[in-house]
Amino acid sequence: MKLGILTATISECDFFPNIIELKNIGERNGHTVHLFRNGEFNLIVDSGKTELFYSGKSLDISSYDIILNRLSVREKSNAEYYIVNEFLKKGVPVVNSPESIMKARNKLFSLQIMSSLGINITRSAVIRRPEDIDNVLKHFSFPLIIKNIFGSLGSSTLLVYDIKQLISTIDWIWNVNRNEIFLIQDFIRSEDGKISDFRVFILGGEIIGAMKRTNSDKDFRANYTRGASVEKALLTEEEEKQCLLIADEFGLEIAGVDFIRTKEGPVFLEINSNPGLDGIRQATKTKNFDILEKIINRLNEIKRGL
Ligand SMILES: Nc1ncnc2c1ncn2[C@@H]1O[C@H](COP(=O)(O)OP(=O)(O)O)[C@@H](O)[C@H]1O
Ligand SMILES: [Mg+2]
């Protein structure tokens, strides 16, 4: 197959090592793999026609069999999807599809969807005025988590221990943007008494890897990019069932589902449409198993209509 990988890498930067590794693995398996830096595209939209250029040269879009979409959806905007649209217009399949990504982009919408699936989720409050803080405190108790509904890599997830921190944090958020919508959540404790969560990597409706992430002693967030340590994890049947149900509902071909294993069972945090590859690859790699190889094989299956 001829595979194109759209990355969020800007024109001045090198590709991430795992993206280069994807290309190498694809090529070793007899495929043609082209990596694209987001910042090197150039589009001309004209009446009745469009032309996409890459690195200054006109790009033969329809020569690609499939596109792996690793663009990040920045904040509230999907402006960068003009590139994806050009491939879709020419009938080239894009994985993940923009619809599924849009569905999973907003943490609040995702929680609403998971809630109606009957999934046990991180209970969350949304308020729009300071007067409602008192009501939140009737239903939740400290410590609390505050998070941006579009955050990723743990960058917009905060921990507050008392009312003073809560009020000043909310005050600061609304000072930056009075219309900001954010989540206030219980701080969920893991059954092992540590700060840990699970990341489940789903590909084509199948769980292909799962890891337990344990926070570093300098951070309460268990994101791999925040220094969490990772280890391969075994899931219970119930956890597996719920992860697959969630991924299926969002229509994501590639998904990362996060949950905390509590004494009362799994509590689901979120679904990621562009899950990181580093931590999960490290946690699950063996002599005969590489998550990157699985991704290449799955893309080839999709191309062959399987
Ligand atoms: N309600 C919560 N209770 C306990 N830990 C949480 C909670 N929400 C988030 N975390 C921790 O913070 C990390 C980042 O939060 P998350 O909602 O997954 O945002 P991001 O999209 O930035 O990864 C999680 O992996 C988890 O370790
Ligand atoms: Mg997360």
How does the SSE layout of this entry go?
Elements: E1 2-7, H1 17-28, E2 32-37, E3 41-46, E4 49-54, E5 57-58, E6 66-70, H2 82-89, E7 94-95, H3 98-105, H4 107-116, E8 124-125, H5 133-139, E9 144-148, E10 157-160, H6 163-176, E11 182-186, E12 196-203, E13 206-214, E14 229-232, H7 237-250, E15 254-262, E16 265-272, H8 278-284, H9 291-303
Parallel strand pairs: 1-2, 1-6, 6-7
Antiparallel strand pairs: 3-4, 4-5, 8-11, 9-10, 9-11, 12-13, 12-15, 13-14, 15-16
Bound molecules: adenosine-5'-diphosphate and magnesium ion.
Magnesium ion (MG) is lined by residues 223, 258, 270.
What do you see in this structure?
The chain is of the alpha+beta class. The protein folds into three domains: 2-95, Rossmann fold; 103-120 and 190-297, D-amino Acid Aminotransferase, Chain A, domain 1 (2-Layer Sandwich); 124-186, Dna Ligase, domain 1. It is 30% helix and 28% strand. It has helices at residues 17-28, 82-89, 98-105, 107-116, 133-139, 163-176, 237-250, 278-284, 291-303; strands spanning 2-7, 32-37, 41-46, 49-54, 57-58, 66-70, 94-95, 124-125, 144-148, 157-160, 182-186, 196-203, 206-214, 229-232, 254-262, 265-272. Strand 15 (254-262) and strand 16 (265-272) form a beta hairpin. Helix 1 packs across helix 9 (291-303). It is globular. The two termini are 14 Å apart. Bound molecules: adenosine-5'-diphosphate and magnesium ion. Magnesium ion binds at residues 223, 258, 270.
